[in-house]
Amino acid sequence: MVDSYGSREGGFISHECREGVYHVMDPNYIIEYLKADGKAAAPGEDGEIVITHLDAWGMPFIRYRTGDVAQPGSGICKCGRGFATMAKIQGRTTDFVVTPDGRRQHALSIIYVVRDIEGVAEFKIIQERSDEVRILLRLHKELFPIDGYERIVRGIKKRMGESVTVVIEIVSDIPRDASGKYRYVVSKVA
Question: What whole-number distance in Å separates Cα of residue 96 and Cα of residue 185?
């Protein structure tokens, strides 16, 4: 039995060898690992997996941000394969959220509201009640726009309803879950 990493958009991206190392299918993909500042992650550093799928002729994916987090591998694997390696695949978990009127919706509807604001280095959206969301933000303050908070509140209310309360907290660090995974959204009511 072997493990693999993939995505709906990119298919199978890496497979585990007999040594327990994940090998990127280099003939089919160019994989980048980008830190929050947009620079390449080095081995041992977390980075968002960004794929260029070389075999997707019908709909090419060029520098597609997956939202998944991993680390680039280092060195040559003992198995002898010459492919690049991927280490510490952390993945991501996306919850659903519940609107004040009881609708259950995929959290991606609000993730992009926050993620697409310039200067947002990291964030976590926490929902403990259907009528309130709390957003933890770690910012690159010099890049964050003057109307950034207003855009976030407006975008969340547009998707969840005007009666939802949006609480924004600026933090210096956003801890991972006990499993080590990074979750953009944690809903305790969905």
Answer: 8
108 by DSSP, 3-state: which?
A: helix
Provide the Cα torsion 141, 142, 145, 149; round to 10°.
Answer: 10
8 A C-beta contact, residue 21 and residue 73? yes
Burial of residue 156 (CB within 10 Å: 0-12, 13-18, 19+) is: buried
Nearest-angstrom CA–CA distance, 34 and 46: 8
**Which position has the token pair 């199978």?**
12
Query: Mean pLDDT for each 10-residue chunk of the chain (190 residues)?
Result: 72 86 86 90 90 83 84 88 85 74 86 94 95 97 96 97 97 77 81
Give the residue carrying structure tokens 């890496």: 14
Torsion of CA 5, 7, 8, 11, to 10 degrees: -60
Q: Quote the CA–CA distance of 37 and 67 in Å, as a whole number.
A: 14
Q: Tell me how far apart the terminal alpha carbons of the chain are, to the nearest angstrom.
A: 34
Domains of the chain (ranges; CATH) run 4-90 (2.30.38), 93-187 (3.30.300.30)
Amino acid at 121: A
Q: Is pTM, for the whole model, over 0.85?
A: no
